Amino acid sequence: MAACLRHVKVLRGLSSGRSRSVKKQMSVLNAAQPSCRLLSSLSLSASRRAPRGGQHVFVLTTVTTPVRWNSGATRTASAVIDAASDKAAPTDYIPPPPPLPEAPSEVPDVLNALGEQTLSSVGLAGWSPAGLVQQGLEALHVSAGLPWWSAILAGTVCVRLCMFPLVIKSQRNVAHMHNHMPTMTRLQDKFTQARQSGNAVEAARAGNELMEFMKRNEIKPFRNFLVPLAQVPVFLSVFIGLRQMANLPVESMKTGGLLWFTDLTLPDQFYAMPLMTMATFLLTIELGVDGVKAGTMNHSMKWFMRCMPIIMLPLISNFPSAMLCYWFTSNVFSLLQVLFLKIPGVRKFFGIEQMVHHPPSALPKKKGFLEGFRDSMSNAKLAQQMEERQRVDALKFQKAGQGPIQKTYTYDPTKARGANSAVSAKSKS
């Protein structure tokens, strides 16, 4: 009843034109009643148009009947049912709180003990060789509390100490070859002269003699390259690992340097680190630190190794300071290692032979750059001529074997010489 009075107050000021729109809306509402079988009990009755102050009054009355549930009602009918229902939700209704999300089984560590981001949280320190190097450097930095430059230095020393047994083995071979150098020099000169003369038999004999001498005295020149070949993968792994950390960059490395290179992620602006790195690299080549000594190489290889620091200086000038810190530390360790292995007591302890001082005449003659270059060019030209001669001889031999037989005798060599002579004498008579 209260709802009817409320509708009367709303519809009191409507005009006749508006009453038609209301009837139209009510007819739409009544059209939806048969589909849901719920609002069929609603009836709309309009009162007679009794003028009341020049206005028309419409009375909306509703008759409620028991509601039946229609399981096949559409969404529109459901909305109408909800709107027509007198039962409204209480204003003090509070829905139950949603369930709490389950906590993850493993929470990744984002910060280390120093309050810095871990390398694994920024995509580094994986299981590749470079990632393993990064894990080791992070362990030294966090566990020991070392700044990054100290962690790089300590990591370099640890890696070089692990390779020290290979250095001992290489030094033994170097000392053994040096003590047999006069005989090897004589045999090598003999082999070179035989090759230059073009006498293949004499060259093969001299080469066989040299190989027998090296086998009898257990001289293996390739052992000298054992340490450099083992250092290449380690050097590249550390280099790539530090470059990834500097390019990211790791925030703590920006203040992890020393002296003038406080930022390890940037190149050295004073070019001091590149110059010191290449200077120590040249010393390691000249002194034969890791079994590769420039004086024992052939002329071309020796000068190539000596020119390498000059060629590489412009390239490494743009490297981050962290990479040059590792390289410089490795070179300094190599130089100190040479000084340590020159002590007689140390050499005796590790079983390294004492080097015999040979007279200069028994050793290979040292040549200057121009003289050595001329000799290298002449040797290359002689080698080319020998190869051309061998190629021509092979072609002639093949042509002689596949072509027709050439007549080289004045008589038939398949018959006896005496019978031919008797026949010829009889014919003459």
UniProtKB/TrEMBL annotation:
Signal peptide location: none
Pfam families tied to this protein: 60KD_IMP
GO cellular component: mitochondrial inner membrane
Membrane insertase YidC/Oxa/ALB C-terminal domain: residues covered: 148-341
rRNA-binding among keywords: no
Record-annotated membrane-spanning stretches: 148-168, 225-246, 270-289, 310-329
Subcellular localization: Membrane; Mitochondrion inner membrane
Keywords in alphabetical order: Membrane, Mitochondrion, Mitochondrion inner membrane, Transit peptide, Transmembrane, Transmembrane helix
Region of interest (Disordered), residue spans: 406-429
Residues forming coiled coils: none
Membrane topology summary: Multi-pass membrane protein
The family this protein is said to belong to: Belongs to the OXA1/ALB3/YidC family.
Name of protein: Membrane insertase YidC/Oxa/ALB C-terminal domain-containing protein
Organism, as annotated: Batillaria attramentaria
